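pasting L-asparaginase II for the record, 316 residues
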Amino acid sequence: MAHELVAEVWRGDFLESVHHGSVVALAPSGTAVLSVGSPDEVCYPRSSNKPVQALAMLRNGLDLDRELLALACASHSGEDFHVDGVQRILSGAGLGFDDLRCTPGLPIGERALVAHHALGRGAEPKYMNCSGKHAAMLATCVANGWSTADYLDPAHPLQTAIATTLAELAGEPVGAVGVDGCGAPLLGIGLTGLARAFGAIAAAEPGTPEHRVATAMGGHPEWVGGTGRDVTALMRAIPGSVAKDGAEGVYAIGLPDGSAAACKIADGSSRARTVVLAAALRALGVDVPRELASVPVLGHGEPVGAIRPAFAPVPA
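structre below
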């Protein structure tokens, strides 16, 4: 991908590091008002695909709403309420934690991880940040009478339905298929397609499955991320927004008017993605809180600089 400079790391008045990447911001019409790098080239959105995966499950019989639907869209922190929610989804389908096929993991939330270690617990699938999605996948299989043992097979009816839904919302075919960190099939599209999908979900009419996803995530952002997570803070700060972070420096957001933005940091770092996404939102005229628009660089525990966008948040 032909990435460009998107973020600078300043320690005092010294430019210490830089990040390259791609970013796009779409107006409600779908026109790009900001385009940096190569946002039309295929990348793996990683967990930023989860709201679309959840939408596909709703279209195929999944019966979840509110916080449990938000959990199906989540890369959760592994807090107790997240794990309890996973159990609720599974038990509603007559299943248990042993039916999960996601990779064993530890909580990714700092507080949750400390508490986890204090109790002497190890890695298990239920603590893995994708366990809500996997529980919802299993519940969808049960609703359709599909096999649960092989639900991660790319040829499984569940996974083919997800691929069809992603291509529809993105407005482009799936351009690559891999295996995600959790074991589920990973589908590649461009950042422009990813933003287009998020705009469609955020602006969907009431009564549609897309609107169910939007209201669940926006109404329960702590279930999408967790305590201290920037994705939770972002959705709280921008009413009606649908936002999802992803591994390898990916971030996407859709707004109620149908506008949207998506970015990827080329080196996979997560530290610059919020700053870059905030700059894309400013190009759309969105007022982003200062604490989300800038990430401090610390020296001896105190701010001595900041990570800043390296492009002007103005129309291309």
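The two ends are 19 Å apart (CA to CA).
Residues 68 and 88 are 8 Å apart (CA to CA).
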